[in-house]
Design a protein that fits this description.
The complex is a heterodimer of chains A (369) and B (298).
Chain A lengths: L1 H15 L2 E8 L6 H17 L8 E8 L4 H13 L5 E4 L3 H14 L3 E3 L14 E3 L4 H14 L5 E7 L3 H17 L2 E8 L7 H10 L3 E3 L4 H13 L6 E3 L6 H7 L7 E4 L9 H14 L6 H19 L6 H8 L5 E3 L2 E5 L5 E2 L2 E7 L2 E8 L2
Chain B lengths: L2 H32 L6 H18 L4 H24 L7 H23 L4 E2 L9 E4 L2 E4 H23 L1 H11 L1 H6 L4 H27 L1 E2 L3 H16 L4 H21 L7 H15 L15
Classes of the chains: A alpha/beta (369), B mainly alpha (298).
Subcellular location (chain B): Cell membrane
Protein name (chain B): Branched-chain amino acid ABC transporter permease
Family (chain B): Belongs to the binding-protein-dependent transport system permease family. LivHM subfamily.
Chain lengths: 369, 298
């Protein structure tokens, strides 16, 4: 009798269980594809770990490729909102494309969580958008502080990509903090996304002979730069932010990447929470390696925060409620560490510093806010 | 700006410029015989870079073998482009040819986008490309010396073909007057196919060098390089092979020198190259070795 009751309730639950859709907008092809692919793996794995809400409803993902393009990002988000009726959006990876998705989210009052867009002013006057990563200024400033205090570099040269918000924001924050500490930025040299030849700039930097070079670039440019620099005999220590936190950087830079440091938000060798350990164990089962890429962890956290918010709203599931709950996230023990999201949608979290040794990313230090 | 720095930048400019020059020669030759700006030329360079990558990674061909195969492949693509897309339009207005060329360019880019995705593919050059050579305080990679050297040799070979061989005479005659060439019993289409083959082979060398110097290739890599090479050909005087080489070197050097003299404006180095182009054309409307097309003979 008891058994059949359970069965019946299960059946009823199964029959009445609805499908809750979450839209995922990522660059799966194109120049930034490596980031998107990484994040998608994390989101998919997270979804396979936690998909059933308290009331038995199932969270399903609807994934769309943006090709790393602004227009595609915007139309993908529009399609998810109007056709697929998603309750929340996760995505894009870069700041510029996330802005496009955000516009759609704000217009339609659908909560958006960005896994990796670190642009400083991204969330200004935004009610329906939040993120699980830190913001640029925080990364740039943390690195400036660390370079001056811990590594004793007194002057630096910046090489920034004038065509990306990401690069400009990081460079500004680094310079501000570095100057405030008493360091000196000798020169800021500018490049454009897609540039291949940095030999001219490298020759100029050699003439300046700085202690340190900060390169707030994405991996395709940064890898070319470091390789050409080492080939030109420029051996100055170099650092980037999380734009190089991808295996592609090491593949493209080869042995020139030795000793390169960069800031990141997560280190798979030092999981700090229970969820993190579980996730890594599951990732290993699926992939055969414990090395969870940073963006995979960030993607997973974006999903988990979204899932928890959905869960907190099961009685009356509306995007507005989900959005409210996301903004009330406090000390959530995620895959990439402990995350709090405030009213503005910005996350407070620690920064991890990594170094590349023998073509591997190695944990170097942790910088707390 | 001390002298070692200047020398260093000079080497940088030459290696960049000679790659533009290799592509520019193809532009200029096709223009000479067909009066067509072959906008698919940059994409032929891209196609050959992928061919070389495929040979190296999938077939384990050594670098030089891959380079030769890429050249042959580029020739085939170049001749096929002419046969399929341009030949039926020999009598059509020139603007139709131009549009067709742009169409071919998009076709090749999208085809390779489908085959290889738009994600950059790593291209591993042979180790000697990155050997460091120190000369009087400047250190350069062997690659950046090798590229201008090979370019020089190839251009000399092309000039020899043009001026010392039977086919060269035919090509120059064709550039001079198509009708008369036909009357002389020369098959104009065969000569045009030869020009495409020659230009494409040079583009292949440029493409493989480019990939070796910058370690990664994408389906859209031909666009900007092609545009700059075209600018180089115009700058040198379109229709002139030597002019194309000079133009290529000037564009490469301008980019580098712009960074050297105005480091704050280094992000605008592409603009500098084109501003310089406009500047030259104001004074020499037909380019540096400006050819009067009424009497064109390469």
């Amino acid at each position: 009798m008891r058994k059949s009751l359970v069965l019946i309730t299960c059946l009823v639950a199964a029959l009445s269980a609805k499908e809750i859709r979450v839209g995922v907008v990522l660059p799966l092809t194109g120049v930034t594809a490596a980031y998107g692919q990484s994040a998608l793996e994390g989101i998919r794995l997270a979804n396979s770990l936690q998909a059933i809400l308290q009331n038995g409803d199932k969270v399903n993902l609807v994934v769309v490729d943006t090709k790393g393009d602004k227009l595609e990002s915007s139309s993908a988000a529009n399609r998810l909102v109007s056709q697929d009726k998603v309750f929340g959006l996760i995505g894009e990876m870069t700041t510029a494309n996330t802005l496009q998705v955000m516009r759609v989210a704000e217009d339609n009052k659908i909560p958006l969580i960005a896994p990796a867009a670190t642009g400083d002013r991204l969330l200004d006057k935004k009610a329906y958008s939040s993120r699980v990563c830190f913001m640029d200024s925080f990364q740039g400033a943390s690195l400036a502080k660390y370079a001056f205090e811990n590594l004793n570099y007194k002057n630096a040269v910046l090489v920034l990509d004038q065509s990306t918000d990401y690069s400009l924001g990081l460079a500004r924050a680094f310079e501000k903090e570095f100057n405030a500490k008493g360091g000196k930025v000798l020169k800021s040299l500018r490049i454009n996304s897609g540039d291949k030849d940095f030999k001219a700039i490298i020759a100029q930097i050699k003439g300046l002979n700085p202690d340190f070079i900060f390169l707030p670039l994405y991996y395709s440019e940064a890898s070319l730069f470091v390789r050409q620099a080492r080939n030109a005999g420029l051996l100055t220590p170099m650092a980037s932010a999380d734009g190089v936190a991808d295996q592609s950087f090491i593949e493209l830079a080869g042995s020139a990447s030795e000793g390169y440091i960069f800031t990141d938000s997560f280190d798979s060798h030092n999981p700090s929470t229970k969820l993190s350990k579980d996730f890594i164990a599951n990732y290993e089962k699926a992939k055969g390696t414990k090395e969870v890429p940073n963006f995979t962890a960030m993607g997973a956290d974006a999903y988990f925060v979204m899932f928890n918010a959905l869960n907190a709203c099961v009685d009356n599931l509306t995007p507005v409620c989900v959005n409210e709950k996301i903004h009330q996230t406090i000390n959530f023990e995620g895959v990439s560490g402990i995350i709090s999201i405030d009213k503005t949608g910005n996350a407070t979290r620690s920064v991890v510093l990594k170094e590349i040794k023998n073509q591997k990313q190695v944990f170097k230090d942790i910088i707390n806010p | 700006m001390d002298s070692t720095l200047f020398l260093q930048q000079l080497v940088n400019g030459f290696s960049l410029g000679s790659m533009y020059a290799l592509i520019a020669v193809g532009y200029t030759m096709v223009y000479g015989v067909l009066r067509l700006i072959n906008f698919a030329h940059g994409d032929i360079m891209m196609v050959s870079a992928y061919a070389a990558l495929f040979c190296i990674t999938s077939l384990n061909v050594p670098f030089l073998g891959a380079l030769s195969l890429a050249m042959i492949f580029a020739m085939v693509v170049g001749i096929a482009t002419d046969k399929i897309a341009y030949k039926p339009l020999r009598k059509a207005p020139r603007i139709s040819l131009l549009i067709t060329a742009i169409g071919i360019s998009f076709f090749l880019q999208n085809l390779f986008n489908m085959l290889f995705t738009s994600t950059p593919k790593a291209f591993l050059p042979p180790a000697y490309f990155e050997e460091l050579i120190n000369v009087g305080g400047i250190s350069v990679t062997f690659g950046s010396l090798l590229v201008p050297l090979i370019t020089f040799i190839i251009v000399v070979i092309v000039l020899l073909i043009l001026y010392k061989s039977k086919y060269g005479i035919a090509i120059r005659a064709l550039a001079f007057d198509v009708q008369t060439v036909n009357l002389m019993g020369i098959d104009a289409n065969r000569i045009i196919a030869m020009v495409f083959a020659l230009g494409s082979a040079l583009a292949a060398v440029g493409g493989v060098f480019w990939a070796s110097m910058y370690y990664s290739i994408t389906p859209t890599m031909g666009t900007l390089i092609g545009l700059k090479a075209f600018a180089a050909a115009v700058l040198g005087g379109i229709g002139s092979v030597v002019g194309a080489v000079i133009g290529g070197l000037i564009i490469g050097l301008t980019e580098v020198i712009a960074v050297a003299f105005f480091p704050e404006l280094s992000g605008f180095k592409d603009a500098f190259a084109f501003i310089f182009l406009v500047f030259i054309l104001l004074f020499k409307p037909t380019g540096i070795l400006g050819i009067n097309f009424e009497k064109s003979r390469f």
